[in-house]
Amino acid sequence: MTDTAAPQLLRPRALVPGDLVVVAALSGPLHAPYAPALERAVAEIERMGFRVRLAPLLRAGRHRWWSAARPEEIAEEFNGLLRDPEVRAIVAHDGGQTVFGYLDLIDFDAIRADPKPVLGYSDISLLHLVLYARTGLVGFHADVATPGLGGHWQTASAARRAELGRLYATLLTGTEPIGALPAGPSWECWRPGRAEGPLIGGVINRLVLAQATPFALPLECFDGAVLFWEELGGQASHVWTYLQILRHSGVLDRISGMVVGVPAAIDGLDSSDGSPTLAEIVLDVLGDRDIPVLGNVEVGHAGPNLPMPVGIRAALDAEQRTLSLLEPAVRPHGMTGPVG
Fold first, then answer.
1. With 0-12 CB in 10 A as exposed, 13-18 as middle and 19+ as buried, what is 144?
2. Short-list 62, 34, 202, 47, CA closest to 131
3. What are the phi and psi torsion angles at 101 (to 5°)?
4. Which of 219, 260, 264, 275 counts the most CB atoms within 10 A of its CB?
5. What predicted TM-score, i.e. pTM, was given to this entire model?
């Protein structure tokens, strides 16, 4: 963990109808069987009112090991999108295991010169954390294209899909706070209380691993923060260990609240055989810290994602099961220069 100052918030320019959104392979490859899901994702973005283009590396069947391409190639394409004034937002096609390979190749000056939304979760949450730490850029922890917009969204009801489409479009284009996010029936109060602070988080393994690199978030970023996290796969004991690392590093002593995503494919959470629940794991590590916790929120791999803009202030009331965005994630379209 570092003790340097937290960054000044850097909001992207608000999108307008007809703006160009590029879907890019920022980590994992596009496997040929999932190409139809990518087509459905493009249709969802177009329904939000934007033009869509696929980045060149996003070709079905193209891969290098577990990645869409070599880290250097992905970084080159990503930097080109950051520098292209026509590109107004970038949506990751999927997560994966590659972002750690090109953190040191990102053109941070291009982000400062023309901040634009980058959308995604999983491995992409690492990008959000690092870009926020280095530039203050608001990260859009939201659904990726292929398994998200083109996958999980398609299993939701038509009403829910329309609600999510409006929510995402408003987040990208609106310069007024969204307010309360639509609560789902899975939301649970694991520890009552209220909190207000900037949203900081992502996949918990990426959050913890990032803090072991030169790209770590300054500890001050966690002061008063509402920490949100989720996890895919692995063991329940791994989650307990990640939380213990956050305890040892002092993060849990700085945050004001916690939002936990619906767990996905984590082994060892079966209370019927004496194993702990995720809520029990969280409360065990938190101990007597007076931190409200809202659990089983649609954040991450388990289904259609509610957007969580990194760095934007949010209000949490765990007992009432509400989570509200108190600030816009984008700045007015005509505004120039760095804006917090």
1. buried
2. 202
3. -75, -15
4. 260
5. 0.95
